[in-house]
What we know:
This protein is an alpha/beta fold. It contains 17 helices and 22 strands.
Amino acid sequence: MDPIYVTGHQNPDTDSIVAAMAYTALRQALGDRDYQAARLGQVSAETQRVLDRFGFQAPPLLTSVHTQVRDLEFDTPPALPAHVTVDMAWRQLQRHQDLAAIPVVRADGTLYGMLSQEDIAGYHMTQIAHRRLAPVPLENLLSVLEGRLRGPASPNAMIGGDVTIALTREDLPQVRDGVVLCGRQPDLIRQAMELEVGCLVICQGDLPEELADLSTATLVIGTPFDAYRASRLLFQAAPIHRICRTEGLVCFHLDDRIGEVRDQVLRHRAPCYGILDQADRVVGVLSRHHLLRPRRKRVVLVDHNEAAQSVPGLEEAQIVAIVDHHRLADIQTGDPIYVRNEPVGATNTIIAGMFQEHGLLPAPAMAGMMAAAIVSDTVLFKSPTCTPQDRSTAQRLARLAGASLEELGREIFSASTEGLTDQQLLTADYKEFRIAGQGLGVSQVTCVDSAALLRRKDRLLPLMADIGRRQGLDLVLLMLTDVLLEGTWLLCAGDQEIVRQAFGAAPKDGAVFLPRIMSRKKQVIPMLSELWA
Length: 533
């Protein structure tokens, strides 16, 4: 079964990463093994410290949920080595009659060509009309004729030339090159061996014992088939690399997006196309009808419900559920889904409640991570988004984990800016919003020493202005939220008058301190939205 990806938002914070992991643990505890946690960005120093503290690995990175070739029900016929016989290829095509062509591969599994029934039929008719066999390996000939070789022969021998069905001595060719087919006629067999024809095929029989010791350079093969059938099988001994189509091949990789594949299929209109993996090895065959009903990737969104903050390709995916504590945004679905949105300070508070409703407890280490995520998102319960439910839930989870919330808080916020470059500081928890036609970018860093970060202001402001220009934003803000000061230093790049109007304090040299402002979601975005609305 395909996985159901559980993912938080881009530039994930601790609550986002842990919520994806916790919801996955809940679903798996309920028997839904298809759920798989994922992340959409790099793990921050704060989140990494929480993961390390409780012994977890970060979820794998998910770059997109676009529908890809790998999501199609494509055909997976055997890929034929280029040296196999036309006879074997024909048998495979008969077993897979719904296929327009079958892939031909090199020794390393990469695509050499495509072979269709039409290719074989055209070759066969041409060869029969000319009655001349292009040289083929002796082993191929023995294979298609189910033949028995009498006498010594080089393992690398090549057999070819004019094909003759001999009924009398007059039918025997006068040159040694070529293949002669005859019946169980000892005199005719002897005469052919004395003439030393290149290859003698005895149909529905074998070399008579009295001729076994006859000295000759003729290769003698006995076959159970009659002359009519054997004469046609001869031409099926050719290796398929001679007749398969190798020019102008169009193929696709498993990671190719369906929209691009459709464009190529409409442009080229080939009957089918090879499908390759990352190493260019053949894994299947794609026909046009496979594009009609692709399987969409399935996702659960936690800690967000806004398309701009979600995984690329979300419009092509099937959203299974949303669990969030933010305002409802712009995501639409084609079918009814499970949505849980509660006005609490952290998504993990909601998920902890869901564990309780199902009569389950998270494992102690998971409970500790969830408690840390609530502490992080509520800024140690000082954010205006914090509710009594957040506090009581975090306390219960901490008891399960045997952890101290105060120690977790100090550990988390001392790590939040540790070792970050200026660019990383801006993008660690960055979100963009479009409000009444205005573009807004807001990054937030929660710390215990905002003064140290303010000393980087002259480097940060130009970077913020550059982000605004590249993204077409009217205002870019950096919130340095200080847990100990219980307020935020706000760095501004762009329309600073709107900041003065919103918060009643004018930025000086691009910075202003806002006491008791701790939440981007509940205090900063609503104030700006009200002015722009």
